[in-house]
Each structure stands twice: as C-alpha cells, then as structure tokens.
Amino acid sequence: MQLTRRETMALGLGAAIITVLPFRANAATEDLIAEFTGGADMAETGITLTAPEIAENGNTVPIEVDAAGASAIMVLAAGNPTPPVATFNFGPLAAEQRAATRVRLAGTQDVIAIAKMEDGSFARASKTVKVTIGGCGG
Amino acid sequence: MISRRDFLQVSMAAAALTGASGFGNWARLAAQQSLTQDQLLDFDTFGNVSLIHVTDIHAQLKPIYFREPSVNLGVGPNKGEVPHVTGADFRKLYGIADGSPSHYALSSGDFASLAKGYGRVGGMDRVATVVKAIRAARPDALLLDGGDTWHGSYTCYHSQGQDMVNVMNALQPDAMTFHWEFTLGSERVNELVESLPFAALGQNIFDAEWDEPSELFPPYQFFERGGVKIAVIGQAFPYMPIANPRWMFPEYSFGIRDENMQAMVDEVRAQGAELVVCLSHNGFDVDKKMAGIVSGIDVILSGHTHDALPEPVLVGETIIVASGSNGKFVSRVDLDVRDGRMMGFRHKLIPIFSDVIEPDAEMAAVIEEQRAPHADKLAEVIGQTDSLLYRRGNFNGTWDDLICDALLSEREADIAMSPGVRWGPSLIPGDDITREDIWNVTSMSYGEAYRTEMTGEFIKVILEDVADNIFNPDPYYQQGGDMVRIGGMGYHIDVSRPQGDRISKMTLLKTGEAIDPSRTYQVAGWASVNEGTEGPQIWDVVESHIRKMGTVTVNPSNNVEVTGV
C-alpha cells in the first residue's frame, strides 16, 4: 500500500487516525539513506532482511540482515522517533556479512536495510512489521 | 511428457467429474431416507499412501449442530475465491443441490430446518468409526491432527486438556500441531506434550529468548508408509502471542517463518523424503500464499480458519486440503507416490452425520469416562432458545449477540465486546440451553469479563486494528479470526479501505447518537489478552443472563453495515 500525498493529507484531518497509520519512509529516513549511499541507485536484490510480519512484542522485535559481499549494512526503523537502529561494518576477514539484533518499534512501520557492497554498489530491502493490539484468535 | 502439474490437474478434474468426493449425489438418497454409512465412507482406495486429517475439533466430543458462515469475505487476491464463497454461491460452485445433505453440511441457508431433518454432526465416537474404516482399507494410513484440539468445552477446561488427550490417544494419531493448546499455559502444554505417544510438530515453534527452534517441538517427522518415505512438517498457528495472551506462554515465539519452512522442506528432501506433507494451522489464505512461496510441499493439510472444502485447492504443485472444524468432518486423501514424486490424488471430505455413522463402542466408552465426573453439571438446563444460535460469520452471530446482551445487562455497560473466534457450535430453535452449551461457546483459560472505560477514539482504534487482522489484503498480515463482535453500538465498515479508514458512522444504539471520540464509555468484554484482567467468568455472566430470560429470542442484527465487498 502506498498512500498518495493527497490521501495522506486527507487522512490527517482525522486526529484519531494518525495513531493507527503505518509509518512509511519519510523525509528524515530518506535523508539518512541518501547520506549513506551518496544518492547512488540501490538494487532490490543482494540483501535479505528477515523480520516478522506481525511483531509478537513491539518492544523487542527480532530482525536479521544478510548481504554477501557487503562492507556495511545500515538498518533503519522508518517510523521510530529516532530511525537509525544500527550500522554493521564488516572487515575483509568477516566469514559472512550477516547480523541479527532486536529492535523496538513504536508502531506498525517499515524496517529498511541498506547494504553497501565492497564494489561500491548498494542494495536495499524493506519489510512492513505490524505492531497490533491483538486479541481474537480463530 | 506430462508434467506433474498436469497429473494433479487430471486428479482435480476427475474429482469434479465423477464426484469422487460424492458431493451433490446424496440428495435423492436422503429423500429416500437411505443415506447410509457405506455411502458416506465409500472410497475407491487409490495409490499407495492414505492421509487422514482432522483439525480444530475444539474439544467437541459429542455430536453438535454447526452452522457454516453466510458472510466470509475475501480481500485482495482472495476476493471471491474459496473459502470466501458462501451459501447459494458455494452450492452453485460445487454443484450441490439445495436441501441436500451437502447443503446442510457445507453451507449456510435454511440451517434450522435442515438441522431438524439431518440431525447433529460430529462426535468423536463417530470420527473413530470413520478412522477405523479407513484403516481397514489402508492399515498404515497416517492420521494427522491439525490442532485446536485441547480447547473449547467444560470437560476440557476442568481437566486442563486431559479429556482430549485421552480421547485422541485412543484414536492414535501419528502427529499433531498446535494453537489454543498453548492457552493452557506453557507448563501444562509441556507436561501434556511430553506425555504424547505421537509427534508434536512445529517448525515455527521457537524459543523466545534465543530465537532458536524449540527442543520440545521438532519441525518434522519421517514415516515409512506404503513403501514411501513421508516427511510430515508441522506448522503451528503463527500469531499465537498476538491473538492469544503472550503472558501464558512467554517462553515461546512463533511466526510464519516461511524461509525456515523452505529450509525444512529442502532438508527432508535431501534426506530422501518422497512425499512432503505440511500439517498446518496457518489458516487457509496464509497456506495458499505460503504454497506459492515455499516449493516442494506436496500436500498442505490446512487448519485454523475452519473452512470445509469438498475439493482440494491446487497452488502450483501443492494441494491444500481444508477439513472444517468441531469434529464435523474427516478428510481422506489417497496419494499415488512414484519415483519420489506425488503423481496424483483422490480426496474426500467426509461429513460426520451423527445419525448415519454408527458410534464406535470403544471410543464411546472413553468419551463417557471423561464426561462422567461432570455429567450433572453438563446437563443442567439453564434456559431455552426460540432462535437459531450460531457464531460463524465475519461480523456477528446470534450467539455473540446474546453474549453481548448478557454483558450489557449483567455488567451495566454502554458497549459490549466479544471476541471474533470461529469455534462454538450452534443451537436450533426449540433447543434447551444447557450449561455445556454455554461453555461450548465461551470456555477458555482467560474468560474473565472485564468492565472498563474507553474513549470513543480508542474504541475506533480497536475496531480498525481488528479489522486489519481480517481484511489486510496480504494474508500474511491476517490472523484468521473474525471481526470483534459489538453490542450496544452500530458501525459502518468499508473492507476495501486501508487500516485507519475502514470504520465510520459509529453509533451508540441506546441513544442513536454518534460516538464521540473524546467521550468516555463503559465497555464490558471478555477474553482480554492482557495479564491481570479482573471480572467474573464469561460463562457465569451468560448463565445468569439466560436464567433471567428463561427463553431467549435473538433476531439477527443489522448493526454493522458493510461496503467495499
């Protein structure tokens, strides 16, 4: 789902709605990405981001990034008050370019991972993680 | 050369043409009062492997009525696709005659009158008869239980699942996966699982602390049947800690984990599995999506969303079998596995008409043993109903309307909320309402009926949140329940809109006024996932209400207006 700017503004008129709208990449995260990549194009393959579709506990959401041949991987939580989660740097002796951690998510949002490859190219992956109040199982 | 997919499509076509499942052919037989056990069980044994699937029994040991939903909306890619086809449309799709046994068993419409004619369904003693008959034809058939077995009745609650374990052990399944079982609390689940003489599977059951596969629940089990090496991979309900109280099983983590599913499929194939069966509690739409992502699964035995389909659904080279709920159906799937590949299948969804299928005497005795200590409590008549009481449907059912009425009246609230679960048998007009009947639709380990204050704004947030768990166009973001039931309030829902924009026109029914986002309302509900919820148990609230009413009359409500279908 991608909201147009007009739809976003129309929705913004209802104050209650803000709390349940998923947070997408915003200007702040776009700036952070541009700073990391220098504005270079990003491939859609070459990096795997593993995260749950729905968080069991928004306070501690396990994520994992994996990008063979990366020298660094930046992870952002686009909807958090402070989007940067971590940047993992891999030295030339690293056996694999993989890292796992847990992040706290303020609400339903996109988690974004950008890999900087050894050849200077970039790859991007993102996943929407839903944070829900739950209840009502089948 | 004919591809494997072609073979499977031939199997699908054969099932539809010859009515291998027998659906649609029984109307005349029933009219002649000659529907027999032999006809229900009739099956031309096929291939070299048989699977028997039961799922979502919800502790229903005795025959019951169970009305299938009239509203079960599909969204996104599943709009208008099975199982999101109901009533007359469903019958048309499968060529089922109006008024036939299949109409009664599989679809809604005329339920109360058909129920009087065809009688109750299910009963684990009848299920045992069917399982034994299949084993007579194929002694090494695999019996697989999709979970939601140790939950849902008075005896199950009071024995903490032991009654169901005893009954299922007598039925001798080969493997099982899980959902509501975990609401017994992890300590009890661990104790029961350690006692099981069969495999407790779940590739997606992880240790929450270390995010590693749980030792108690292996991902898969191998079986050698009919000369075929079969791997059964378990898939527990992915959203247990979200849909049910996380604090009851904090050591466990779940999730869909389809990348791990792929790894397990690859692992079992590498070890020589010729047939890969996934015993799943994902829910049907999630299974469909997973079948398109994970390659190498031959058969998914699908549970959780309680759908009963007379034919499998083919996704790529995977067939998905849905076997209903509450003991109402048993699926038999015969497979032809040759040269390490599934080359064809024959399938039958067997409806358990309790008046047609003879109870198995041994199992009947086991069931009686479980019920005997509680017989008086179970049988006590609390009231009567003039109306059909049922639950299934996306938005409301008369059972939930009655439960919400009980909450509004007994707890003196403005608005009532009842969880959109899919279990709970039906009662037909003229029936007594016994204590057992009330427990069948309310029993759970977190049944406290809370009373709290909520602002209009927060009530909307709840409705939006739950609606997205059902109507998110991506099945992986759905939890497989129905919409939270509301008493004392009406609303409008556009299921085609995104979260935050589906719910509107919320109205307090007793005044006819619009819900004020900033005003505070008294809300009564039950089945909160929050730890420390206080209040009387919901079954006591409902019992007290029905006692006062004597005879209940619940007309289908139209307080929810649905658009965007």
Automatic annotation (TrEMBL), chain A:
Keywords: Signal. Residues 34-136 form the Ig-like SoxY domain. Residues 1-27 form the signal peptide. This is Sulfur oxidation protein SoxY. It comes from Pseudooceanicola atlanticus.
UniProtKB/TrEMBL annotation, chain B:
GO terms for biological process: nucleotide catabolic process. It holds the Pfam family 5_nucleotid_C. Residues 396-535 form the 5'-Nucleotidase C-terminal domain. Keywords: Hydrolase, Nucleotide-binding, Signal. The keyword Hydrolase applies. InterPro entries: 5'-Nucleotdase_C, 5'-Nucleotdase_C_sf, 5_nucleotidase/apyrase, Calcineurin-like_PHP, Metallo-depent_PP-like, SoxB_N, TAT_signal, TAT_signal_bac_arc. One of its GO terms (cellular component) is outer membrane-bounded periplasmic space. GO terms for molecular function: hydrolase activity; nucleotide binding. CDD domains: MPP_SoxB_N (cd07411). Residues 51-307 form the Calcineurin-like phosphoesterase domain. It comes from the Bacteria. SUPFAM superfamilies: 5'-nucleotidase (syn. UDP-sugar hydrolase), C-terminal domain, Metallo-dependent phosphatases. Belongs to the 5'-nucleotidase family. NCBIfam families: TAT_signal_seq, thiosulf_SoxB. This is 5'-nucleotidase. It comes from Pseudooceanicola atlanticus.
